Amino acid sequence: MEIAYTVQPRPDTGVYNAKLGMWLFLASEVMLFGGLFSAYVFLRMGAPPDTWPHGWLSVPLGTLNTLLLAASAVTTLLAWAACKARRFDRFKLHLGLTLILGTIFLGIKGYEYRDKWLHYEVQLKDGRIADGHLVRARTTAETVVLHGRYVADRRELLDGRRKHGPHEELVIPRDQIVRMQNYAPRHNTFMAIYFTLTGLHGLHVLGGLVVFAYLWGPGSRLWHVDPEHFTNRVEVAGLFWHFVDLVWIFLFPVLYLT
């Protein structure tokens, strides 16, 4: 039995079923990310003066990831256009490039996450604060070794531009530590919303890559049976990918540039 309106548009909506379903799904996604963006705005506006971090994220890496996703949007569109033109070889090329670009994006995000997870703020009994990256090879049960610097006031840490000053190896006895916390989600409100927004977005990127990998590999067998149906599948997956790109266009300036 053939499923209706997988290729031909419905007379009542003007689009085929999968495309209609994707638009409805994306409407719910807009509400999801819209709520999270609203939460960020309220948290940012409600923060006391001089308590919100600035410059904690790498703008060059964020810019690179923006360019990668922008390029992947183009290659996705070209893959769909190749299907419409019945150029299966070009489809494989362009969708393969999309997979590579998306994988590099996730690799960079993984590097950023690892950098934050190994970055520590250590409060000492004498009132000083050590800030830097953990040197695991030198850290023992008696001492903690950081590559970083000492600061006298925690407010100095909120300005990420000051983190680029001279750094040195700090050997800190564990019995002098009052509190030791890495830059994980529980570090403060900013890190919590950063990991929530970018983590959820990253899961969407991963999901899109899984679908693209299926269409590039075993799913491409449908091309030889019903090329128009396969083209519609590529279009629907592309709609989701363009939404993922659009979300990042908002995430980048909100998190990295403010």
Fold and architecture overview:
The protein has 258 residues and is an alpha+beta fold. The chain folds into two domains: 17-115 and 187-256, Cytochrome c oxidase, subunit III, four-helix bundle (Four Helix Bundle (Hemerythrin (Met), subunit A), Up-down Bundle), CATH 1.20.120; 119-182, SH3 type barrels (Roll). 57% of the residues lie in helices and 13% in strands. The chain is built from six helices and five strands; from the N terminus they run αααβββββααα. A five-stranded antiparallel β-sheet has the order 4-3-2-1-5. The longest helix has 30 residues, at 17-46. The radius of gyration is 24 Å and the shape is elongated. The termini are far apart. The mean pLDDT is 91.
Strand and helix layout:
Blueprint: H1 17-46, H2 59-84, H3 88-117, E1 119-124, E2 129-134, E3 143-151, E4 168-173, E5 177-182, H4 189-216, H5 222-225, H6 227-256
Antiparallel strand pairs: 1-2, 1-5, 2-3, 3-4
Helix pairs in contact: 1-4, 1-6, 2-3, 2-6, 3-4, 4-6
Task: Please tag this protein with its features.
57% helix; 258 residues; 5-stranded antiparallel beta sheet; 13% strand; 6 helices; 2 domains; Four Helix Bundle (Hemerythrin (Met), subunit A); alpha+beta; elongated; SH3 type barrels
What's this, in brief?
This protein has 258 residues and is an alpha+beta fold. Helices cover 57% and strands 13% of the residues.
Count of helix runs: 6
Report strand order across the widest sheet.
Answer: 4-3-2-1-5
- The share of residues in extended strands comes to 5-15%
> What's the SSE pattern?
HHHEEEEEHHH
CATH superfamily of the largest domain: Cytochrome c oxidase, subunit III, four-helix bundle
Quick one: biggest sheet?
5 strands, antiparallel
The residue ranges in which pLDDT falls below 50 over 5 or more consecutive positions are: none
Gap from first CA to last CA: 55 Å
Q: Output the CATH class name of the largest domain.
A: Mainly Alpha
Oligomer: single chain
Total beta-strand segments: 5
CATH topology of the largest domain: Four Helix Bundle (Hemerythrin (Met), subunit A)
CATH architecture of the largest domain: Up-down Bundle
Indicate the percent of residues in helices. Answer: 55-70%
User: Which geometry do the CA atoms define?
Assistant: elongated
Secondary-structure-derived class: alpha+beta
